[in-house]
Amino acid sequence: MTTHKVMLLPGDGIGPEIMAEVRRVMGWIEGAYGVSFDVSEGLIGGCSYEKFGHPLTDDTLAQAKASDAIVMGCVGGPQWDGKTDYDKRPEAGLLRLRKDLDLFANLRPAMCFDALADASSLKREYVAGLDILFVRELAGGVYFGEPRGIEDLPGGGRVGINTQRYTDQEIIRIARVAFEMARKRNGLVHSAEKANVMESGLLWREEVTKLHAAEYSDVKLEHILADNCAMQLVKNPKQFDVILTDNLFGDLLSDAAAMLTGSLGMLPSASLGSGGPGLYEPVHGSAPDIAGQGIANPIAAILSFAMALRYSLDMGDAADKVEAAVSKALDSARTGDIWADGFEKVGTTGMGDAILKTLG
Ligand code: NAD
């Protein structure tokens, strides 16, 4: 029997509640697919700080590195805001995990389930069936480039400086991820940059073009200026399959696209490195306003686990099955954040029940 080592890091706030539902889905998959999950559970964020004085311990990090996939809940909460040193904040645990695992590729699907198409800010016909995958570079670009800072100007006044910087190798490794993903999907990559006004954009375009010609000519490649991409995302979002972009543009474009799909409680993400385990987590935070009430939507966490099945555990069929079950469950049951007239209002466990019932 195949055994997959999975590390679960529920984290703070609603994390433990939504992760309990992930565990139930894992149990169903073990029975249905004849695999075994060797699960270890650790602390990250504020809860780790409370117990160990640090948001991610060396032990937990080592265990995470030794696993096949890491599924995280969420970190943070007002009880730690401004009360700890910067490197002891709950988010510092997550940043350390990303950095130590060299997770340079952030995958964010923007999927609109048919049942939720009316919850979008766009008309149903523009978003029903929407399925875009953003491949965002996560480890470079203007958020990290040097020089940076705020300086006094000699003649008075101040200047704020950040540097957009990408090497050819950084561009090639993220472009490769996008082309590989497109091969598993609908075979189309839009590469978004600003080659018209930025040298880093020009290099991006040149390197993506070269890699495409050398290794991925079976995939269709379109170059698109990032500002036009923003416009097209609200004009005709269904034209896209995979959108490849840098750290800054990816931040903005994927957030805009996320909102086309309805609720924050629905959105999963994956961060991949060049060999070690991937990190899978909901896009949302720890929702302190509803934590402990049993009403959080567990779907983003469950869909994050589905991404782990697909991208780290080579169980694409099981991932399809989980995603289809989520879609079907939404026809009857809804948590408060996505509830509408005519549907049964359920809590976190109730939503898990509906998904498991659909799985059979
Ligand atoms: P948030 O995503 O936690 O919540 C925003 C709103 O969405 C809240 O009203 C919340 O109740 C709702 N919401 C979020 N997830 C939901 C779910 N699964 N089901 C139902 N409703 C849901 O964002 P915030 O309030 O700005 O941040 C709260 C804390 O989370 C902060 O400490 C922040 O730093 C942290 N945070 C962590 C992550 C992460 O762990 N990756 C990401 C963002 C924010």
UniProtKB/TrEMBL annotation:
Q: Which SMART domains match?
A: Iso_dh
Keyword Iron among UniProt keywords: no
Q: Which residues bind Mg(2+)?
A: D227, D251, D255
Comment on bound cofactor: Binds 1 Mg(2+) or Mn(2+) ion per subunit.
Give the binding site residues for substrate. R98, R108, R136, D227
Family annotation (InterPro entries): IsoCit/isopropylmalate_DH_CS (IPR019818), IsoPropMal-DH-like_dom (IPR024084), Isopropylmalate_DH (IPR004429)
What are the residue positions of the site described as Important for catalysis? Y143, K194
Its pathway is: Amino-acid biosynthesis; L-leucine biosynthesis; L-leucine from 3-methyl-2-oxobutanoate: step 3/4
* One Pfam match: Iso_dh
PROSITE patterns the record matches: IDH_IMDH
Cite a single GO BP annotation. L-leucine biosynthetic process
Quote the record's binding site residues for NAD(+). Answer: G285, S286, A287, P288, D289, I290, A291, G292, Q293, G294, I295, A296, N297
The cofactors it requires, by name, are: Mg(2+); Mn(2+)
Main location class:
cytoplasm
Where it sits in the cell: the answer is: Cytoplasm
Q: Can you provide one Gene Ontology molecular function annotated for this UniProt record?
A: 3-isopropylmalate dehydrogenase activity
Cellular component terms per the entry's GO annotation: cytosol
Give start and end of each Isopropylmalate dehydrogenase-like domain.
5-355
- Oligomeric form and interacting partners: Homodimer.
The family note in this entry says: Belongs to the isocitrate and isopropylmalate dehydrogenases family. LeuB type 1 subfamily.
What is the protein name for this chain? 3-isopropylmalate dehydrogenase
Can you name the source organism? Kordiimonas lacus
Supply the gene name.
Answer: leuB
